[in-house]
Amino acid sequence: MAAHQLPDTAVAYVNGRLSTKQTQFPKTPIFSNAFMPARFEASLEEVETEGIIPNSINGTYFSMQMDHHMPPKFENDILFNGDGIVSSFRIFNGHVDWKRRFVRTDRFKAESDARKALFGRYRNPYTDDDSVRGMVRTAANTNIVFWRGVMLALKEDGPPFALDPVTLETLGRYDFEGQVLSPVFTAHPKADPKTGELLCFGYQAGGDGQCASTELVFYTLSAEGKKTQEVWFEMPYAGFIHDFGFTDDWIIFPLSPLKADFERIKEGGTYWAWDPTEFSYFGIAPRRNAKREDMVWLKAKNSFQGHVAGTYQKDDKLIFDITMADDNIFYWFPEAHVSADAFPQPRPFKAPMSRYEFDLKDFSKNDMIEPTKTQHFLAEFARIDERFLGQPYAQYWALGTDPTKPFDIEKCGLPAMGIWNTLHHYNWETGKEESWWAGPTSQLEEPCFVPTSASSPEGDGYLIAVIDRLDEMRQDLAIFKAQKVLEGPIGLIRLPLRPRRGFHGNFVDYTDIKEFCDRRELGGDIGPAQPAQKPLPWQAAYAAELGKLK
Question: All domains of the chain, ordered by start, with CATH?
Answer without folding.
Answer: 13-526 (2.130.10.10)
